[in-house]
Amino acid sequence: MNPSRGGWIVFVSLIVAMILGVLHLPADWPSWLGSLRPNWLLLVLFFWVIDLPHRVGLVGIWVLGLFVDVLYADPIGLNGFILACVTYVGWRGFERLRMYSVLQQAGVLFLIVFSAEILRVVVLGISSSRQWDWGLLWTPLFSMLLWPLAFVLLMRIRTGMRIE
User: Fold this and answer.
1) CB-based contact 112:66 (threshold 8 Å)
2) Residue range 92-146, pLDDT digits in tens
């Protein structure tokens, strides 16, 4: 993440996505709404990787993943590996993904977030004997549904700040 020429915006947006990932709902809201949370970090990372792949570095994303591990209390290296895999997939197909419509990109994002959630459940199942349920589909589904909004918002930030 090169801080010159607007690279700090990429970094700040990833930090904001990390914070959105750990925010809790107000106490008077229904508790089931907490399971309808998208994976904000993968949404933002997916946007920057397909839109400006030269701004996102694999080592920087791995280090960010280590901070996410500490923030989410996950096993060390889990989120770094997931974020590095998303970055790699984005790098390999960014030219094709740019040509897709926003709805097609949302479908690809669903598959990426679903794969990340499956990997997270498998690792957490091995490390803490945590079982999975069908609720793990909610995160990819809501990430996919929020992709058009996140895409428009991040594209406006990118064009408004003239990040190239």
Assistant:
1) no
2) 988 898 899 999 999 999 999 999 999 988 888 887 776 777 778 888 999 999 9
Tokens for 4, please give them.
């010159």
Which tokens belong to 110?
Answer: 């669903």
Residues 87, 49: contact at Cβ < 8 Å? Answer: yes
Q: 94 near 108, Cβ under 8 Å?
A: no
Q: Are 109 and 151 in contact (CB under 8 A)?
A: no
Euclidean distance between CA atoms 71 and 120, whole angstroms: 15
- pLDDT on residue 4: 58
Judge contact between 38 and 142, C-beta under 8 A.
Answer: yes
Quick check: 69 and 77 in contact, CB under 8 A?
yes
pTM of the model: 0.88
- How far is the C-alpha of 148 from the C-alpha of 152, rounded, in Å? 6
Measured between alpha carbons, how far is 47 from 58 in angstroms, rounded to an integer? 15
Question: What are 162's two structure tokens?
Answer: 């003239």
Evaluate whether 108 touches 102 at the Cβ level (below 8 Å).
no
